[in-house]
Amino acid sequence: MLSCHRKLKIFACNSNPGLADEVAAVLDTNLVKASVGRFSDGEIRVQIHESIRGADVFVIQSLCRPVHDNIMELLIVIDALNRASARSITAVLPYYAYARQDRKSQPREPIASKLLANLITAAGASRVLTIDLHAPQIQGFFDIPVDHLKAAPILSQHLETRGLRGCVIVSPDVGGVARARVLAEHLDASLAIVDKRRPKPNVAEVMNVIGDVKGKPCVLVDDLVDTAGTICQAAQALIDRGATSVRACCTHGVLSGPAIERLKASPIEELVITNTIPVTAHDNIDKITVLSVAPLFAEAIRRIYEELSVSILFE
Hints:
By secondary structure, this protein is an alpha/beta fold. The protein folds into two domains: 8-150 and 294-314, 3-Layer(aba) Sandwich (Rossmann fold); 152-291, 3-Layer(aba) Sandwich (Rossmann fold), CATH 3.40.50. Helices cover 29% and strands 27% of the residues. The chain has eight helices and 14 strands. Helix 3 (112-123) links the parallel strand 5 and strand 6.
């Protein structure tokens, strides 16, 4: 229950209505009455059917496929809320697009994640709430406060129900070691690393496995699974080196291109993801388990609204 006298409003855009409904239900409130549709030429049309003057509004929008439609929808909704005199607007972004373009890895490349941060700020957002950014430094791309949640406690609780306390947590690349270490600490597990190289985007080649995995169950952990090439190659490498079983978990199930077919053919017994990105009927195979982040987001929203500390949720 909410104990603040100000008005709290939850606004659901079109990318992840299921998560928005869950969040509103946990907070025991209703979604803002609004319609977000299209004109006949494809332009986005936003109509808000209730007063939000002086309200603290939380706009829930995952910036997943169709990425550019969802980005424009978010920006236009934020603009509409500003012009309707909302007191504050928090962009709740369960999945942040362009997060992998956080630096110039080659000459004459954009830093698109910074550009997106500028657009969201310019549209009028006063705060951002997100979870498991691909690169934590993206928080610094914003000139407004960013609350960066972690899904590790949710994932670790599920893995404990699978009897995996004391397993080997495996990072599929060197860059994900810090993320894997957090999960390993939750599960009292040891740590291993897959050494890989990426000759071009969405293509990975496994070079070596650093750590002892022989005769042990392994859990691969990453922030997202896109085409599933990295995770499936890493799983096969672990089996080849004597792992008794391989599961995988990540926060964001992007699952584009050949991901589903690769997962079906891989030795991965279970892929655990969250509902930061909605899972389509095509993607919902037996190997995939979807956990809800709605209670975590709802608690963060409540704390922001009531001006309480959010950092306790990071522990």
